C-alpha cells in the first residue's frame, strides 16, 4: 500500500544547489559586467534584532539588500508551492475512500471520482512545477546579480588594498576567492531564500494537519525530529571545519598554478617541467584528500537521516494501521497521514541540508570577508587634501621603512630634491633604491620620518592627486594585456592619440611599433609578452613621456637596452624631462651624467649623503 502514496514533494532547490555547487566550485569564469559597486561602509550589520545572521548573508549584505524584492518573490512562490504540496495527497485519498471503500450505491460514480482525482493530481503537479520554475528563476537571477556586485566590490577592494597585503596574497588564491568562494556564498543565499521560509512553513503546516488528524500518530512521527536536529548541529560544525580546510587547500592550489603558469618560460628554459608537475601534483593531491574528507563528512549524515526517518514512518504505519483496524481512521486518512509524514520529513531534511549548505557558505564567506576587510592599507586621512604642485622641493626626512619588521631597508634616509633638479640615486643591489621611489609614490607608507612635497606630508595628500604628480618608469616595466597605444595612454588619462604617438616617437617605440602587425593597435598579450625586454621598457618610458606630471621617477630606464637604443632613450628622457623634477635610479654612466647630483646609498647609518658629481646638467 505505501507504494501507492503520492510522491514526496520534489526538493528541486536542494538539487539546484547541488548542481550549482559543481560548476561554481571549479571556478567558472566570472562575468565582468557589474551592476553596482559597494563600499566598505555598506558592509551591513552582522545582527538583526539580536539574531546572528549567517556570514554568507552579511558578506553579501549590501548586494543582497538590493536584490531583496527578487529573493522575497522567490520565497513567496516557494511558500505558495508548499500550499499546493500540502493539497497533493488529497485527490488520491478521496479517490481511495470514495471510489473503492465507500460501497454505497448513492455515492458518486467511482469512475468519475477517479477521473477527477487524476485530473486534480495532474493540475496540482503542473502548478507546483510552474511555481518551481518561477522561484528558481527569481532566486538564481538574484543570486547571480548579488554575485556580480560582490565580485565587483571584492575586485575594487583588492585594487586599493595595500601592497603589503598583495605581497602576501597570491593572485591565484585571489581568483579562487573571487570565483569559487563567491559561488559558495551565493549557494548559501539561494538556499536561505528558497528553503528556510518554505521549509519552516511546510513544517508548521504539516504538523498542524497531523495533529488535527491524529495527535498520537503526529507525536510518534515527531519523536525522530530532535534526533535529526541534534545530528544536524554536530554535522554543521564538522562540515564547516572540513570545508575551511578544503577551501584553503584549493586556494593554495590556485596560487601554485598561477605562479607556475606565469613562469612557464622559466620552467621550460630550465628544463623543470617534471619538477613543476611534481609541485602541482603535491598540491593537487592535497586538494583531493581534503575534498574527499569534506565529501565524506557531508555524505555521512545521509544514511543516518534515512534510517531515522524510516523508523519514524514505520512506527506511524504500525500504529496507524492499528487505528484503521479499530475503525478510528479510514485507509485514505492513513494514506494522508503517511504522505504528510513524508512532507514533514521533507522540510526536516531540507533544514538539515540548509544547515550543511550554510556551513559551506560560511567557510567561503570567511575567505570573502578577508578580502573585503580593512588592513594596513595606504588610506587617505579624513582631511586629506590635493597634493601640492611641487614648486619648491621633495624632502625625504629621516625616513625609516621595512617590509618585514626584523629587516629594516631604509633607516634615517634623508634627501632633498629641489624642484627642477635631476637627482641620480646610486647604490648596491637590494639597498632600497626602488623602495625609496615606491615610498614617494606612497605605494607603501613610511614607518618613521616623513616625505614632504612643498612641506606637506604625502600622508596628508589625497592619493589620487599625489600619484598624478609623478610619471613613473618602474624597474620591471608593468605592461597590461592591451595594445601598445593603450599601454602608453595608461600614463595619462587625458592622453590623445596624437599625444600617445608623439610619446611613442620620443621613447623610440616608433622603431618597433611600425613592424608590429597592427602598429600601435597591436595587442601585447599578458604582461606585454609579445615584446622584447628592451621594447617593453621603451613603452614604459613612453608612458612617462605622455604624462604631464611635474616629477619623473625613473628606475633603471636603460637596463636591457643596447648602447645605441640606450643613447636614444637617454636623449628622449633628456627632452621629455626638461623643466621637470627627476629622481633617477641607474647604473648607466651615460644616463647618470644627465643628473645634477648623484646620491649614493650605502648600508652605513645614516646613509652617505650624495656628493655633487655632475653639476653641468643640460
Ligand atoms: N615586496 C617586498 N617584500 C619584502 N621585501 C622586499 C620587497 N621588495 C623589496 N624587498 C627587500 O627590500 C630590499 C630593498 O629592495 P629594493 O628593490 O628597494 O632594492 P634596490 O636598491 O632597488 O635593488 P636593485 O638595484 O637590485 O633594484 C631588498 O633587500 C629586498 O629584498
Ligand atoms: Mg631596484
TrEMBL record:
Entry GO CC: plasma membrane
Keywords: ATP-binding, Membrane, Nucleotide-binding, Transmembrane, Transmembrane helix
Gene Ontology MF annotations: ABC-type transporter activity; ATP binding; ATP hydrolysis activity; ATPase-coupled lipid transmembrane transporter activity
PANTHER family: ATP-BINDING CASSETTE SUB-FAMILY B, ATP-BINDING CASSETTE SUB-FAMILY B MEMBER 6
Organism domain of life: Bacteria
Protein's UniProt name: ABC transporter ATP-binding protein
Locations listed in the record: Cell membrane
Bilayer disposition of the protein: Multi-pass membrane protein
Domain ABC transmembrane type-1 as annotated: residue spans: 72-360
Gene3D superfamilies named among the record's database cross-references: ABC transporter type 1, transmembrane domain, P-loop containing nucleotide triphosphate hydrolases
Disordered: annotated segments: 1-31
Transmembrane segments: 70-91, 111-131, 185-211, 217-233, 301-318
Species name: Kribbella pittospori
SUPFAM superfamilies referenced in this protein's UniProt entry, alphabetically: ABC transporter transmembrane region, P-loop containing nucleoside triphosphate hydrolases
Residue ranges of every copy of the ABC transporter domain listed in the record: 394-618
Amino acid at each position: 500500500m505505501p507504494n501507492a502514496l503520492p510522491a514526496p514533494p520534489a526538493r528541486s532547490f536542494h538539487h539546484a544547489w547541488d548542481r550549482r555547487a559543481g560548476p561554481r566550485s571549479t571556478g567558472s569564469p566570472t562575468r565582468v559586467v557589474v551592476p553596482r559597486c559597494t563600499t566598505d561602509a555598506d558592509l551591513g550589520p552582522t545582527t538583526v534584532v539580536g539574531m546572528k545572521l549567517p556570514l554568507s548573508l552579511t558578506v553579501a549584505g549590501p548586494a543582497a539588500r538590493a536584490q531583496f524584492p527578487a529573493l522575497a518573490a522567490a520565497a513567496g512562490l516557494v511558500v505558495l508551492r508548499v500550499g499546493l504540496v500540502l493539497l497533493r495527497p488529497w485527490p488520491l485519498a478521496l479517490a481511495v475512500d470514495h471510489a473503492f471503500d465507500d460501497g454505497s450505491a448513492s455515492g458518486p460514480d467511482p469512475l468519475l471520482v477517479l477521473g477527477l482525482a487524476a485530473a486534480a493530481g495532474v493540475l496540482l503537479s503542473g502548478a507546483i512545477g510552474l511555481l518551481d520554475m518561477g522561484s528558481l528563476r527569481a532566486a538564481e537571477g538574484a543570486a547571480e546579480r548579488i554575485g556580480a556586485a560582490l565580485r565587483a566590490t571584492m575586485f575594487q577592494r583588492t585594487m586599493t588594498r595595500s601592497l603589503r597585503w598583495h605581497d602576501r596574497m597570491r593572485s591565484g588564491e585571489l581568483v579562487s576567492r573571487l570565483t569559487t568562494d563567491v559561488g559558495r556564498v551565493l549557494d548559501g543565499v539561494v538556499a536561505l531564500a528558497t528553503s528556510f521560509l518554505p521549509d519552516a512553513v511546510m513544517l508548521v503546516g504539516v504538523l498542524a494537519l497531523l495533529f488535527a488528524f491524529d495527535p498520537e500518530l503526529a507525536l510518534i512521527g515527531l519523536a525522530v525530529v530532535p534526533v535529526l536536529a541534534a545530528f544536524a548541529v554536530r554535522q554543521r560544525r564538522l562540515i564547516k571545519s572540513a570545508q575551511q580546510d578544503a577551501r584553503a587547500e584549493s586556494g593554495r592550489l590556485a596560487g601554485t598554478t598561477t605562479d607556475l603558469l606565469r613562469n612557464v618560460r622559466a620552467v621550460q628554459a630550465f628544463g623543470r617541467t617534471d619538477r613543476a608537475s611534481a609541485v602541482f601534483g603535491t598540491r593537487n593531491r592535497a586538494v583531493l584528500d581534503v575534498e574527499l574528507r569534506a565529501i565524506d563528512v557531508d555524505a555521512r549524515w545521509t544514511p543516518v537521516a534515512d534510517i531515522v526517518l524510516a523508523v519514524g514512518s514505520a512506527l506511524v504505519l504500525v500504529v496507524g494501521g492499528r487505528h484503521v483496524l479499530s475503525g478510528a481512521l479510514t485507509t485514505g486518512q492513513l494514506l494522508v497521514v503517511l504522505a504528510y509524514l513524508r512532507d514533514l520529513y521533507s522540510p526536516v531534511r531540507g533544514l538539515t541540508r540548509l544547515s550543511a549548505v550554510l556551513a559551506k557558505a560560511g567557510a567561503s564567506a570567511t575567505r570573502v570577508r578577508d578580502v573585503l576587510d580593512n588592513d594596513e592599507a595606504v588610506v587617505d586621512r579624513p582631511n586629506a587634501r590635493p597634493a601640492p604642485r611641487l614648486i619648491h622641493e621633495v624632502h625625504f626626512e629621516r625616513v625609516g621603512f621595512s617590509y618585514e619588521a626584523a629587516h629594516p631597508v631604509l633607516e634615517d634616509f634623508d634627501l632633498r630634491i629641489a624642484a627642477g633638479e635631476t637627482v641620480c640615486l646610486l647604490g648596491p643591489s637590494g639597498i632600497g633604491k626602488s623602495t625609496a621611489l615606491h615610498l614617494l609614490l606612497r605605494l607603501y607608507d613610511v614607518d618613521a620620518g616623513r616625505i614632504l612635497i612643498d612641506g606637506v606630508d604625502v600622508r596628508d595628500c589625497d592619493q589620487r592627486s599625489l600619484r598624478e604628480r609623478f610619471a613613473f618608469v618602474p624597474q620591471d616595466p608593468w605592461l597590461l594585456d592591451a595594445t601598445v597605444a593603450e599601454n602608453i595612454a595608461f600614463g595619462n588619462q587625458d592622453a590623445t592619440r596624437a599625444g600617445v604617438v608623439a610619446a611613442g616617437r620620443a621613447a623610440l617605440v616608433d622603431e618597433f611599433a611600425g613592424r608590429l602587425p597592427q602598429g600601435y593597435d597591436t595587442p601585447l598579450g599578458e604582461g606585454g609578452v609579445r615584446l622584447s625586454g628592451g621594447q617593453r621598457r621603451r613603452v614604459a618610458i613612453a608612458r612617462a613621456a605622455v604624462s604631464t606630471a611635474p616629477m619623473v621617477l625613473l628606475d633603471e630606464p636603460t637596463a636591457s637596452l643596447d648602447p645605441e637604443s640606450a643613447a636614444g632613450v637617454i636623449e628622449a628622457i633628456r627632452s621629455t624631462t626638461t623643466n621637470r623634477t627627476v629622481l633617477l635610479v641607474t647604473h648607466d654612466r651615460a644616463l647618470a651624467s644627465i643628473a645634477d647630483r648623484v646620491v649614493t646609498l650605502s648600508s652605513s647609518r645614516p646613509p652617505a649623503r650624495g656628493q655633487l658629481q655632475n653639476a653641468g646638467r643640460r
